[in-house]
Amino acid sequence: MASPKVKLTSLSKLFFNLKAELKPISGESRVSVENAVNRILSKDIFAKNDNPPFDNSAIDGFAINQEARSASKNITLLEGLLRPGSRSRIKLKINEGIKILTGAPIPAGTTRIIFKENTKEHNQKIHFVQDDDVETNIRLRGEDFKKGDLLFKKNSQIRVTDLAALIGSGNSSISIVKPLKVGLITTGNELNASIKRQSKGFIFDTNSIPLKSLLEKWGYSVVDMGSVGDDIGLLRKKIFDNLNCVDVFVTTGGVSTGQEDFVSQILSSEGQLINWRIAIKPGRPFICAKLGAKYVFGLPGNPVAAFICALIILRPSLGRLGGEKEWFKPFSFKAKANFKKYKRRGRTEFLRANLNREDGFVSTFPLEGSGRLSSLSWSNGLVELSEEEQDIDRGNFVNFIPYGSFFQ
Amino acid sequence: MASPKVKLTSLSKLFFNLKAELKPISGESRVSVENAVNRILSKDIFAKNDNPPFDNSAIDGFAINQEARSASKNITLLEGLLRPGSRSRIKLKINEGIKILTGAPIPAGTTRIIFKENTKEHNQKIHFVQDDDVETNIRLRGEDFKKGDLLFKKNSQIRVTDLAALIGSGNSSISIVKPLKVGLITTGNELNASIKRQSKGFIFDTNSIPLKSLLEKWGYSVVDMGSVGDDIGLLRKKIFDNLNCVDVFVTTGGVSTGQEDFVSQILSSEGQLINWRIAIKPGRPFICAKLGAKYVFGLPGNPVAAFICALIILRPSLGRLGGEKEWFKPFSFKAKANFKKYKRRGRTEFLRANLNREDGFVSTFPLEGSGRLSSLSWSNGLVELSEEEQDIDRGNFVNFIPYGSFFQ
Question: What distance in Å separates residue B293's CA from the closest CA in chain A?
Answer without folding.
Answer: 31
